[in-house]
Amino acid sequence: MNSTHKTKAPNYGILAVLMIGAFIAFLNNTLLNIALPSIMTDLKIETTTVQWLTTGFMLVNGILIPTTAYLIQKYSVRVLFIAAMSLFLLGTVVAGLSHVFPLLLAGRMLQASGTAIMMPLLMNVMLVSFPVEKRGAAMGIFGLILMAAPAIGPTLSGWIIEHYDWRMLFHFVTPIAALVLLLGILLLKDKKEKVNIRLDILSLLLSSAGFGGILYGFSSAGNKGWGNPLVYGTIIVGVVSLTTFILRQSKLERPMLNFSIFKYPMFALSSSITMVLNMAMFSGMLLLPIYVQTIRGISPFDAGLLMLPGALVMAFMSPITGRLFDKFGGRVLAITGLSITVITTYLFSTLSLDSTYSYLVVLNAIRMLGISMVMMPVSTNGLNQLPAKFYPHGTAMNNTLNQVSGAIGTALLVTLMSNRTESTATTLAAELGVSAAEAQQQIMIESMLKGINFAFFISSIIAIVALILAFFIKRATPQDGPIEIKPSDDNEQNVVPNLGT
Questions:
Q1: Which residues contact 129 (CB under 8 A, 6 or more apart)?
Q2: Where does the Major facilitator superfamily (MFS) profile domain lie (predicted)?
């Protein structure tokens, strides 16, 4: 598996091990969404707290993904895979044994650090394993395998939670992760010559403080209020750190993230659209399970089944949208998909206590259809405008911004939901002549419903912004000829193909 200038015949056994590792990591993330209401009840925590299991995971990914280019250049596939799977396995064990939220969150952070290394590593190995003419088909199969995780994850999670404790989700993954780690130790034999490159520690610290500060501020507003000094203080620190980070990257010979690629208008536009859409999309994955289980009392298994058709739609649409993009371009698909997304997200803002199960299934599936028509075509169109030498930088930037925007969007919308829930509960309690603390369970259910509807309404407005931007999309062509990625001394290890995620 040494990275060389010649593309060797792929070792399918090793690729299978790497794929199983990535699949388990991706599956573990999709298992947790359905479990959030159960975790809230068991650990006696609020929505604004439990959402850190999702936003924190994405934030760690967003911070670490830029460092993977350095890691892949510096270390062999064997070393990185063993390190990634070890971190993931350790995090899974810690989370499975946790009885307090901080320990559970620590386990999730460890899992995220392993996942952040594993995904770009696998994509890079596939890139150097297949010739150019076969990479498309190989990445298509890889995409379909990974799409199976969100398809089976929620349903499997619902069944496990209905019959066992939520910790069984982690206990279920632990032996599989241990087996994959063992196979990696036995099968991966590649070595790497010593490479003299250094990680810019200051850039890593600035990006961590920037993204972390902004996210912590948005996430804390639900509990502390926007006027709390800790809330706006951390947001200010985050903005200043992020600005300093961006300015520093422009002065480095080998920047962690190359922000000069935003000079290409279609790439800048595509990044803006996918960031905005991520903010709206991830919130739905969090809010819908809370609505169906906490408010409607639907069992975890049925809640998982509710998400299944939408996940299957996204999986089946993945190769179809690729062909449609080649024929019609990104603009038509983006406008159509975003129009569907806006309408369905708005309809989610009108949920009631007696919205039918079939209505929720169909609406979620149609929403996922709309989103699937946008993500890959828009991202690919933006990358198509970049010169070949900037392709790895564009992919790294997309992956980072998608993770961070999803985390910030989720934190923001959950905060808005919590604030609206609290204010509505106080108002309803006052109308009934009781204090908020004395409010009946029905009042709290009504209040949470109002909060979720409000969050979906704001989410639909966010999606409208993406729709407006989509009208400015033009079919992009490379600035220096067709993009054909060939490994070289500068970029062979950090080129990561884009999957539109």
A1: 1, 7, 8, 10, 11, 15, 138
A2: 14-478
